[in-house]
Amino acid sequence: MGEDAKDAEDAEDAPPRSAASRERAPRRWPALVAVLLALSLAWLLVARLDWLPGLGEVFGVDTKDRSGPVLLKSIQDMHRYEGAAGNFQVVVDLEKDARFLPDSIRGTRTLFVAGGSVGAYVELGGIGQDAVSVNEERTSATLRLPHARLAEPALNPERSYAVSKQRGLLDRLGDLFSDNPADERAVHMLAAERIGDAARESDLTLRAERNTTSMLLGLLRALGFEQVTVAYV
Fold first, then answer.
1. Residues 25, 28: Cα–Cα separation, whole Å
2. 230 neighbors 143 (Cβ within 8 angstroms)
3. Pick from 69, 47, 65: which is nearest to 56 by CA?
4. Residue 225 DSSP class
5. Fewest CB within a 10 Å sphere: which of 55, 99, 132, 163?
6. Within a 10 A sphere around the Cβ of 134, how many other Cβ atoms?
7. CA-angle at 218, arms to 215 and 221, nearest 5°
8. Could you write out the DSSP letters of every residue in 187-207?
9. Angle at 135 between CA 131 and CA 138, to 5 degrees
10. Is 159 helix (H, G, I), strand (E, B) or coil?
11. Are 108 and 95 within 8 A, CB to CB?
12. Per the confidence metrics, is the pTM higher than 0.85?
């Protein structure tokens, strides 16, 4: 009977202790929420220090240029006259998907705005003596030049920028162990290709030939030639 009475007393004492523990457990959530809010507020203050005057100078980011010296790789003599240049802009939407995997797991999509230029020139270095005909009185001259060509597209970094870049989970993890996680060479190459195609469809070469002709007419007439003919063959 003594043991039964003791068990009954323990049973009576147990509910108050379990109820107290159940009351203390929910109380932890407000404290956890308060900590998360404090961390979020601290992150916002650090990320946007420009809101508070004076703190931006204390916690600002210093930019240090540790680039090496510029190396001159080669020198090429240019025997050409660039008669025209076109400025282009293209929006590149490049998406790479993996087979049998959703985009959220594996795949990238980059939206890139590229600005660049393409020059059109007439090659003057390979002109031989038979390409220039001058009469005996040196009053008339005929020049036979090659048709104008297009130079390689050159992207302008000040006018080129990435709008958005979506990556899957595996791609994000791979960037953590990559030496060049923000590699955008594929987007740059595609943008240069698109700009080159647009330049070939334009009238850049025709305008370059027209401007080259005007330049040569002015030059030869200043040297005393009265009649100058420029032909592109």
1. 6
2. yes
3. 47
4. -
5. 99
6. 13
7. 140
8. HHHHHHHHHHHHHHHTTHHHH
9. 105
10. helix
11. yes
12. no
- How far is the C-alpha of 120 from the C-alpha of 83, rounded, in Å? 6
> Which regions of 44-196 does DSSP assign to beta strands (E)?
80-97, 107-123, 132-134, 140-145, 149-150, 154-155, 161-167
- Within a 13 Å sphere around the CA of 74, how many CA atoms are in the beta-carbon half? 3
Q: Which long-range contacts (CB under 8 A, 24 or more apart) does 127-133 make?
A: none
Query: Which amino acid is residue 180, in one-letter code?
Result: N
- CA–CA distance from 2 to each of 6, 8, 106, 174 (Å)? 6, 10, 70, 69
Per-residue pLDDT in tens (0 to 9) along the chain, 233 residues: 455 544 545 545 545 555 545 555 555 667 777 777 777 666 665 555 555 555 555 556 677 878 888 888 877 777 889 999 999 999 998 877 677 666 666 667 788 999 999 999 999 887 888 888 998 888 999 999 999 999 999 999 999 998 887 776 655 565 555 555 556 788 899 999 999 999 999 999 999 999 999 999 999 999 899 999 999 98
Classified as helix, coil or strand, 19 is helix
